Amino acid sequence: MSRPPRELHAQALTAEQAEDAVLLGPDLESRVVDDDHQALKLWLRLLACTTRVEDQIRNRLRQQFDTTLPRFDLLAQLERHPEGLSMRELSQRLMVTGGNVTGVVDQLEAESLVQRQPHASDRRSFTVTLTPTGRRLFRRMAATHEAWVVELLGGWNAAQKGEVYGLLAHLKLHLAGLEQARPAPKPGKPGKPGDASAPSTAPRRKGSP
To answer: Are residues 52 and 152 in the same domain?
Structure first.
């Protein structure tokens, strides 16, 4: 007898699970079926939760402060580095392209929230710092942002948060070990066809404002 398709092999939902599914609506975890590996189920659940939290924060930043998450993230980096950061350093810390960073810095500079100054050791580059106005605005946004995160993760008690935090620390160390063990790509070696455009289930990181 042939095996039924994966879609028909999904585990039957309990009444409570069905109610939860209606409440949650479709998301990345909706593609999970019963015979998927546990690691895949966990990965998609992490992605689904991360995406929901990030979407909430994006929407609230837009509604309450008329700003975007990339702008908030850039201001946060400058708050942590009052001496300023170069455009390259900002790009590395935010994990976005230099073009995206330039666009966000241009906007923030036009609003007098950041300023560019000649780099102390490299005349060809600039150091970006917060202005007093930018620092005051960021600190107000940061306090509100922290309250949002506390609310969004309020489904866990203190013990549960500590347990998840510890488990994710183990995962982070494991991933760091894999990265170090992986051989570095050879310079100029082209990637496989389709690598750049292949669909991904990774959380979308919007670098544009």
So the answer is: no
Q: Confirm if 109 and 78 have CB atoms less than 8 A apart.
A: no
207, part of any domain: no
Residues 66-101: tens digit of each pLDDT: 999 999 999 999 999 999 999 999 999 998 888 889
Question: How many structural domains does the chain have?
Answer: 2
Q: What is the CA radius of gyration of the chain?
A: 22
Residue 162 burial (10 A CB sphere; 0-12, 13-18, 19+)? exposed
Which contiguous run of DSSP H or E holds residue 153?
none
> Is there a domain that residue 194 lies in?
no
pTM above 0.85, yes or no: no
Start-end of H helices in the chain = 15-24, 38-65, 69-80, 87-94, 98-110, 132-152, 158-181
Q: Are residues 39 and 130 in the same domain?
A: no
Check if the beta carbon of residue 51 is closer than 8 Å to that of residue 27.
yes
Find the domain containing 31 and state its range: 23-66
